[in-house]
Design brief:
The protein is an alpha+beta fold. It is built from 3 helices and 9 strands.
Length: 142
């Protein structure tokens, strides 16, 4: 069993599959915390993860993840994701999922805004985040 888990981790690290790792607040750079507080003073009970080299702050809602924001280690804003209901996704998203993931439901949805102000949508399907543009056209797996 240990060999299987180790093999899976090696494959994921070689292929570049990112796994978010929980991080204690003390391990988050001061520049990141300062940037978060400046832009989102209402953020309380923040939990931290490290993903793709960036730091992600999560807070809000019952799950504590209604809002998430990513920053680079030097405190540069990357993106924010606001949790939304699946009914708020553009119509093209449901069409794409029905066509490519027959019988599978979207388990989570979010409205993504990157540092350039571009809005995208993400839909979690079978543990994967599918990214769509504002019209609901598929862009990529994340």
């Amino acid at each position: 069993m240990k060999k299987i888990i180790f093999s899976m981790l090696m494959v994921m690290s070689v292929t570049g599959i990112a796994i978010a790792q929980k991080v204690k607040s003390a391990a988050v750079p001061a520049a990141v915390k300062t940037a978060l507080t400046a832009k989102y003073p209402e953020a309380t009970k923040v939990t931290w993860e490290k993903e793709k080299g960036n730091f992600e702050a999560n807070w809000g809602g019952k799950s504590g993840e209604d809002m998430s924001v990513q920053y680079t280690p030097v405190g540069s804003f990357v993106e924010q994701v606001v949790a939304i209901s699946t009914s708020e996704l553009p119509a093209g998203v449901a069409t794409y999922v029905k066509l490519h993931y027959k019988g599978v439901k979207i388990t989570e949805a979010g409205k993504v805004t990157d540092a350039k102000g571009t809005t995208m949508y993400e839909a979690e399907v079978k543990g994967k985040d599918l990214i769509f543009d504002e019209k609901g056209d598929f862009l990529k797996n994340d």
